[in-house]
Amino acid sequence: MFSFKGILNSSLLLSIDSLSALFLLIISIISFCVSMFSWKYLNAYKENSPVSFYPFLMLLFMSSSGVVCVKDILFFIVFWEFMTLSSWFLVVFEREKKSAIKGGLQYFIATHVTTAFLILASVIIYSYSNDFSFKAINKSFEFIINNHPAIAHFILFSIFIAFVTKAGVLPFGFWLPNTYPQPPSSASSFFGGVMSKLAVYALLRFFCSVFPVSFYTQVWGFIIAVSGVFSIFVGTIAALTQDEAKRLMSFHAIGQVGYMLLGIGVGLYFIKINPFVAAVALVGGLFHVFNNSIYKSLLFLNAGSIFYKTGTTDLNRVSGLMKVMPLTAITALIGSLSIAGVPPFNGFISKLLIFESSIWSAKQSEVFLLTRGTFIVFGIISVFISAVTLASFLKFVNSAFMGKLEGTFDEKRDLPWSMVLPQLILAGLCILTGLFPMISLKIIYAATLASYNFLPDFSSVFTVNFAGVDINFIKNYSQGAWFPVFVMIPLIILSILIFSFEKYAGTPKREVETWYGGKEHTPEEVAYRGHSFYQPFKDLVSFRIGKIQFKGFYPVTTPSIKVSVPEKFLKILHPDEWLYYPVANRLTKLFESAEKLHNSTTKKYIAWLIVGSIFILILLFYFSGGSL
Asked: What number is the average pLDDT over the span 119-135?
């Protein structure tokens, strides 16, 4: 489409393989739901104009699509930067809030520092390949590995840092819990559902297809798995201590990305040792990307619905919302069970593949005993953290939707169908892809083969039928199976029996005031708020080391460093004062001007059109030498 071949040996080539197609499918589904949800949802932001939201949201959609379609690292960086900048404008949408400005600043600095690593890696590669295309990089990297191993490791380190930071992997994703809660929930939905997953796509693309398979693949596969498990553990434990819905989900975004990296890391490690284990692990990681994009987007939209109805996402200030928004409550429960990996919802099958591939490494005699033990521990930690995830989202559902209807909410502001329908669509996908994983598995395996075309055939690794799927870690020998249809049949029968007993037993129902042992209490005294859940466990994982306070193993306070330096030097260290805030203020004025123009009368629009037309005619008359 566009070429710099004469200058930099770079061209804008758009190529869609199975991996790109999978992510384009994800982008399409989530962008459709986000756009529909935003239509009426932005009415909740009366002090902010849609003019400062929709253009950047559309740019975010387009740049995200460009990231997964280009096959040239220079244009990959261009689309990557457009994606980062457009998302930054959405983060600072509410510019009057200090938290939005702070979160935007952290996001801007963190992502651009790591983008510098990506640029540095591309420049080093270009010095050897003299071409920015992925094919040329693949060929030249073999030469770098054989002749300059230290440089090869530095390139892989730079790529790793750039993408895990964007994905929110700890400790590099320190900015994410302060950033994702700031934009409107529809934008947060795209951040958590798509944007963080594009960093996983980039890791998969570069480590699996751009760079050739080598010993380095095995080393960095283990590093990716370690970073994934660390994020699973710390991110999810920290989420359990949160009382604000969007911040809780932001920490879970960190933890869930960890599952994806664990699957991809195990796959990279075993790609040359056991292709069957590698195939199951890679499919598990990629399947979790697909599943998480659905239920994570859904949960952020649930939080947006709560905000639309109540004006807050603080779980300590809302209760009993199921009585006024039942469909949102049902979809929130489906999303919560899905993210926790509860069968038969879609989160279960992808986690099952990741767990089994991690633990199956114990049977690989070619691997050191300590390494095998490490992978087994990774699998056990992942299983345990799934239970913590369930506990965390039971807290979310119970605090927001169960119990007595209390707190401040707008009785006249009902959720419009444009907000309810996207949640129903995503909840339906959670159920369908959980009950019938066979179709998704075939699509995702094809995407995996786009990275490694020497993996075993789909039929050798998975045996599928209408009821479920068998998993093979050795050719023609099943070591695992999942049949969700057989699980659903007894659940449906039990549900019908329970409903029948309740319907035809004829037992009268009555509603009475809650009895508190003979004492009178106000609702505030007896309400079980969000901060009360799992208090002993939260106390156990909250501690202080020196002046640093940890909450859920995550540092919430850091000591200030006092040094004596010249005042002019201190100003340089505060770019927010001399660069960030002035630019943000000017942009705010620009948007205010655009809003005034947007709100002008029809007569003014017509007048401007007439004036502009006359001006263009004069220019045409002048440049045509007086004859038209």
From this structure: 87
